[in-house]
Amino acid sequence: MTIIVFLVDTSGSMNQRAFVNGKKTLLDISKEAVEVFVKQRQKSAESRGDRYMLLTFDEFPRNIKAGWKENLATFMTELKNLEAAGMTTMGSALKAVFDTLNINRMQSGIDMYGQGRYPYYLEPAVIVVVTDGGKLTTLNTVQRELNLPMTAGAVGGMSGVPGAEMTREPFRWDQRLYALVLRMAGHPPMSGAGGESGHVASDHSPIDAMCEVTGGRSYAVTSNRV
User: Fold this and answer.
1) Are residues 90 and 206 in contact, defined by beta-carbon separation less than 8 angstroms?
2) What are the residues whose beta carbons fall under 8 Å from the beta carbon of 122, sequence distance 6 or more?
3) pLDDT tens, 61-115?
4) Which of 26, 60, 86, 159 is least surrounded by CB atoms within 10 angstroms?
């Protein structure tokens, strides 16, 4: 079983429109991308047993739209109902994702501290962040670097995960982070501009370093054809 978590940026900047069919907002494009991914994934035989989760940049507990208990139908309904408002609290949102995943690991005994690591006993998770790469903002300041709050209760009122003090990083070894950073302009491309080459470059926003640390990567998406 693979756990696939979508963290969708619902900050106010996701309301900006891109020059895509009917000038859709970046949030509309994000919803479509997630829906297409899920439908394509379900066509694969490897998708049997997959679990999908949906989280946003809202405060806890409203940020968990589809968690451990919700089914795929609820996932799709919540996806369609997402609205963009608020700030780009990327650090807190990512920490909430890892906490949501890791709290189950302690209950199931996958994190066997002091007993060594069993590579065949794992709970692989793929976290896909869809964002516009805007400035990281909080109530007090604009941040240049991505920082995850590591203190208990720092994630919008979410209590600390049992056993978290035994792990230096917020993520686990079988969790990968990927980011789709929407770099779509709100105007038509200039004449003579190069088209899609098939290769999607990494984005240089603060989340890129976090992706690399987990073994994933970021993608700078400049067209809906990518």
Assistant:
1) yes
2) 110, 174
3) 899 999 999 999 999 999 999 999 988 889 899 999 999 998 888 777 787 777 7
4) 159
User: Which residue matches tokens 């989760």?
Assistant: 53
Q: For 89, list phi and psi in degrees, rounded to 5.
A: -90, 65
Q: CA–CA separation, 9 vs 151, rounded Å?
A: 23
- Mode of pairing for the β-strands spanning 64-66 and 218-221: unpaired
Confidence of residue 154 (pLDDT cuts 50, 70, 90): very low
Report DSSP letters for the chain, one per residue. Answer: --EEEEEE--SGGGGSB-SSTTT-BHHHHHHHHHHHHHHHHHTSGGGTT-EEEEEESSPTTTTEEE-SS--HHHHHHHHHT----S---HHHHHHHHHHHHHHHHHHHT-S-TTS---TTS---EEEEEEE--PPEE-SS-EESS-----STTTBTTBPPPTTGGG-SSSS-TTEEEEEEEE---SSPPPTT-----SPPPPP-STHHHHHHHHT--EEEE--TT-
Q: What gap in Å lies between CA 7 and CA 148, rounded to an integer?
A: 15
CA distance 15 to 108: 40
d(CA 93, CA 98): 9
